[in-house]
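Researcher: Can you fold this with 25-hydroxycholesterol in place?
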Amino acid sequence: MSRSSTPAPAASSSWSAFLKSIASFNGDLSSLTAPPFILSSTSLTEFSSYWCEHPTLFAAPARESDPEKRALLVLKWFLSTLKQQYASRSEQYGNEKKPLNPFLGELFLGKWEDEAGTTELISEQVSHHPPATAYSIVNRETGTRLEGYNAQKATFSRTINVKQIGHAVLTVPYPDDASKAPETYLITLPSLHIEGLIYGAPFVELNSTSYITSSAGYTSKISYAGKGWLSGEKNSVSATLHHEDNDKDVLFNAVGVWTKSFSFYRGAAKSNSPKTLIETYDAATSPGTQLSVRPVEEQHPLESRRAWGKVAAAIAKGDMDAVGTEKGKIEHAQRELRAKEKEEGRVWERRFFSELAEPDEVLTTLAPRVGLAADGDGDKTGGLWRFDLAKEKSIKDAGEPSAEEVAKIEAELLGQ
Ligand code: HC3
């Protein structure tokens, strides 16, 4: 559906009903009943891959030894992820759809292979009520690791406004010096709202501010604005980078449009000139690396594309009865499983992530600088989640599940 065209008559009436319904919804996006034509067959667990469309930019800070330049490279990588995260699904026409709401334990696994080496992604739905997705992305060549989790809290006022809850932690080793403790960067997530709803052509605009602060003392403050917000161009971004010892001394700044190009300058924005320009990053001419995902038939039964395969096929055919039936099977099996667990006094064992019982050192030291709760907002995300290397090892050691195990999982967890 293009932004210039209005929805077809049948779609148009269900769209009006949808608009009416969102004006009074309860803040849980997964409970939104969207009309069929706005349903996506992609699950939210897949969105974790958006952090690493450019593995070379992701791994670049670990190849640099100067702390100030490392912090700037982290900012560059972060800004480069925005286009994929927030605009890749609807850049031109405004057709942001409603993603599939992952079931507890759903997985999305993949890897990128390019000049940065192998970079692996593990994404897992670690909570269903409230919905929260955790992820780990590791570049094997440099040891750079990103881990995090996120949930969304939505409110309605003029449009859908989404506050992202959660954070990410980037661990960046020093090049050729294993004795030096890696740096950690705490990354907060921007708020967003949906534009174009009234025209039946939704797309994401970012707003407010997010931060990246590091154990070496560098903090980036990133501000987002859109058309109609302040006075700016659609998808405007500006950022400053300072050291905590002197927050008035802006070491670098960046300015531009996150879907197009942005430039990095030395010093504060007021002195930006060709002389202070360091480089310009052009999102449009920076092709990303394709994530590779195993063929569906080789995937673990809880992997997203395999588990939702029948639902996705029904969405593609526009067969809404089949969508309802197939989704219903998974939802029913999941409800049964939760009831059984409750009865037996058990909880679902997450495969790759564990809930942190102790206060997290990264959060304790860095969260106060950027207004994050030191408990990682675990009460709103079903827990404070961290990647569990021991679990990853035991899964690797155990190897692939047998045909009997696959059939059991499909029956008990997915109702297949
Ligand atoms: C709000 C959103 C779901 C959440 C998406 C998140 C925040 C997920 C984590 C990623 O790292 C970044 C990200 C990008 C886009 C966010 C989605 C945009 C729209 C979607 C809503 C649930 C859909 C609302 C339905 C409709 C029809 C209005 O588009």
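Model: Folded with 25-hydroxycholesterol in place. Residues 29, 34, 38, 44, 47, 50, 85-86, 96-99, 150, 152, 160, 162, 164, 194, 202, 204 surround 25-hydroxycholesterol (CB under 6 Å).
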